[in-house]
Structures are given as C-alpha cells and as structure tokens.
Amino acid sequence: MHVSADSLARLPVQRLARLLLERAAEDPALLGRLHDSLGQEPVLTPRSDRSRIIGASAPMRQIAALIERFGQTDDPVLITGESGTGKELIAHAIHQHSRRCRGPFVVVNCAAIPPGLVTSELFGFEKGAFTGAVARGIGQIEHAHGGTLFLDEIGDMPVDLQAHLLRFLQDGQIRRVGGRETLGVNVRIVSATNVRLRAAIAAGRFREDLFYRLNVLTVPVPPLRDRPDDIVPLARHFQAVAAADFGRPHDGFTLGAERLLVRHGWPGNVRELMAVVRRAVVVSDNARLDVPDLAGLDDAVGARDDAAPAAPKPGSEEERAALVTALERSGENITSTAQALRVSRVTLYRMLRRHRIELKRGLAEAPLTRHGPR
C-alpha cells in the first residue's frame, strides 16, 4: 500500500517511529542507513525546519534527551548558558515536546523591557492604573494561559518584581496593575539566563527563594567553542536557510573554510556563526563558500591564537573590572567600549545593568530601587 509523504507527516511521532523501526527490522540496508544518520543528522527536530536544533555532539545529544524528558512534566525549567547559544530555541523545543504544545508560547525578554514597565508587561494593567493607561492591557502571563511563558534573561529582572513573580509561581494567580480582582492563570514557566544566578544571589541582585522555584529542572547549554563537532553542521544549515532567503545556490564549504570555521573561537556563539554565514552567502559569487568569503575570521583566529584571554564569566568581578576599565579608557563611549570588550552594544548594555553601572555619573552604581507604574 502506498502512503504519501503528507500522510506520514501527520502521524504522531511515536507511531511514525514505531513503523520505521518495524520496516528497518526487515531491511538490514535501511537499518544501517538509520544508524549512519543518527551520527550525522540533528538529534532533535522541532516542527519548523528553520528552528530545529542542530548538532550530534555529546552535549547536544544530552540536551535532546533532557528536552524529551522535560516535556513530560509541567515543572519550571531553567536554561543556562552564554548569549547566543540558542537558549530560546531550546525553550521552544521544550514547549513543542510537551502536552502544552497546542497552547501559546510567549517570550518575554526581561533585559529589553524598561524596568518601570516590567510589572505591567508581565501582569497587565487596568484602565487608569497609570498615566497613559487608557484601556485595560492584558499581560504576557495572561497571554500564555494554557501554554508556556519563556522568561529570557531572567537574571536581569528587577529585584522588586521578583517577589511578584515568586508569588505567582506559588499560587498560580495574578492581579493586574491597578486592579483588585485576582485571576488564576495556568502557565508553565521556562526561564533562561547568561548570568551566574548564585553569584547574583550573593550580591543581592537575585532572590534565593525565586532561584529554587525556577531551578527545578535545568538545561546547561555549553558555548559553541566547547562543541566543535557542531560547527560545520550548523554552518551548512545556516547556508541552506540563507540561500533560500536570498535565492542563491549553495553547495557547502571548502575544506579550508571548514577548518577556519572550526578554529574560530566564536565569542558570539551560534548567533555569530549564523551572521557570518549569512553575510558570506550574500557577498560570495560561489555556491561553495571558501576562506575569502568568511571575511575577518582569519584575522580573528590569528589574534585569538596569539594571546587573547578567555572572556570572564558573566556577573563575575573580573567582568566588572574589565567593563569599568574599558569605560574609563573610552571616556564612556559605548561603541568603543563594546569593541574593546569584543561584545555587541546590546550585550554591553546588559553588562551595565548586570553590574548596576550608570554612565555619565563617574561610574556610580545605579540604585537598587526602580520606580514605574504599579
């Protein structure tokens, strides 16, 4: 009986896997190809081809196993790792492999929302709650009802708001800003951070009780430099995506280009790799990308091999010292400081907030108390 590809795609994953294994048991050649594929192809593929998790390294296989297990429960998940390692992608995969997959997946970047607006953004507000509140606003927690709320950069959440989040995690109820009614909301919390939360707890920037509420299940994501086996598969995936976007041919990388990719330190992790490959697809006249198409990487590799020190851990005293030194040398110029630290402007602003450093005030610490609509 002929079964179409569309029909197969609609089968539940478990049923499809069972059929495939039954067929492979009767066909040794197919079984051999399956074993080969398991060592080369992505270990976990969510629904969207563009958002699939790429990598067959040991760390990524372990992460894939955790995602499968964590999909069986509604307990909070904390994803840790450097910026650009794909924490949001992993959070989405956890949602897609859970029983909440048909519900909403709502993303809140705690570092991108002005401190005074975080409360109303998360919990919503009633009409007239503050200046400009001309109508009721539904918060992101309410929007995520029946699904998953992903709190990215949770380490940057203001301390005063952490108590409200803790209360919601304890009783599953919220109250909009300016409102009196208490609302029950059914939401699973997945959070992520590039900050060492235990260090933030010791510094008084993060509540210990909230940490234990969020840290029930943990997914540590290693930086790209610690899983070099994933670099070329990721680069090929990004090349295929970029070629489809720009209508360009693609045929992988030359051996020299692959070696260069593996040698590079990737301080920006997967996000940096994607940007490099997309730029190469745009500027190159060749379907197969070569060393000259990867502009700047050879110089960066040379500089790293010479003597460039490893980046300090986020939230550490070493990071703060490097940040203050760079600010002083640049006269608090944001662009020059970011270049000196080899980070993006967005990451630099996160570092300033993380260490509570305000500009144009003699590098004074920002006050812990932040005011805004409540």
Strand neighbour order, sheet with most strands: 2-3-6-1-7
Label the structural class.
alpha/beta
Q: Name the shape in a single word.
A: globular
End-to-end separation in angstroms reads 64 Å
* Helical content class: 40-55%
CATH topology value of one domain: Rossmann fold
Mean pLDDT: 80
CATH architecture of one domain: 3-Layer(aba) Sandwich
CATH homologous superfamily assignment of one domain:
P-loop containing nucleotide triphosphate hydrolases
Helical element count? 17
Please give the radius of gyration in angstroms.
Answer: 23 Å
- Model regions low in confidence, pLDDT < 50 over at least 5 residues: 11-15, 34-48, 300-308, 361-374
Task: Characterise this structure.
With 374 residues, the protein is α/β, with parallel strands linked by helices. Among the domains are: 172 residues, Rossmann fold (3-Layer(aba) Sandwich), CATH 3.40.50; 83 residues, Helicase, Ruva Protein, domain 3 (Orthogonal Bundle). It is 46% helix and 7% strand. It is built from 17 helices and 7 strands. The strands form 2 sheets. The chain has a 5-stranded parallel beta sheet with strand order 2-3-6-1-7. The protein has a two-stranded antiparallel ribbon with strand order 4-5. α2 crosses α3, α11 packs across α13 and α15 packs across α16. The longest helix is centred in the middle third of the chain and has 16 residues. The chain is globular, with a radius of gyration of 23 Å. The C terminus is likely disordered.
